[in-house]
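Q: Hi! Curious about what Flp pilus assembly protein, pilin Flp looks like structurally. Here's the sequence.
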Amino acid sequence: METFFQKFVSEEKGAVTVDWVVLVAGVLSLCAAVFGAVQTGTTELTDGTGEYLESYEPFDGV
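A: Let's find out. The predicted structure is below.
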């Protein structure tokens, strides 16, 4: 039993998996934050464009 425990403690293959899980979680969190910022910005831009077009008076040539 003691040799099994020593082998389990000295094994490093699982550490790489933990590193990848943390790395992927960080990347996904960053992507979600960027998506939220882009979505907010595009919503504000389209609202502003709509307001401008509603208030625009075209030149009729007179």
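A: A fun detail: The chain is about 85% helix and 0% strand.
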